[in-house]
Amino acid sequence: MDNADRYPLYCRMMDELKLTNELMNEYDSLPHDYGNEVLYQSEAHLIQFIGKNPGTTVTEAALWFKKTKSACSQMVKKLVNKNWVVQKQNVLNNREYNLYLTDAGKIVYEHHENFDRMSYEHNSKQLGDFTDEELELFIRIEKQMNKLIGLDVERSYDYFKPKG
Fold first, then answer.
1. Is residue 163 pLDDT above 80, yes or no?
2. How many distinct structural domains can be found in the chain?
3. Taking CA atoms, which of 7, 33, 80, 90 is between 20 and 30 Å from 133?
4. How many CB atoms are closer than 10 A to CB 43?
């Protein structure tokens, strides 16, 4: 199959990828109940990140989530106000604060982890018609697609960069 013949197939792949992205965005925009605490996925994911990386900083979280430091600071402030996260001043750098889950935050973290595990286990069973090799191939393709789309993003920034 030459490249001209693959173009329609690639377009179909992109259509499916766009639909996946839209569905994931919709899912992430919905509030979820984690142990009688209702929160959005962005909050749950930040709690998950802090739970897996106690002592992390806002800067590290911003890099991980590819968000601005300001956006992460705002989210941390919300979580602090909900008593799920505490900020402790770094003894080696008094301008830096390390993030930790409170006891209440740990409960939310555990409920989120359990929900993810249940959901992922259910969904993985629904893919039972696919072999492990096919799923590994999907992962390889997705990784390559992410690289290619990342290059498209870079080219778009370069293309639309203000001239002069």
1. no
2. 2
3. 7
4. 22
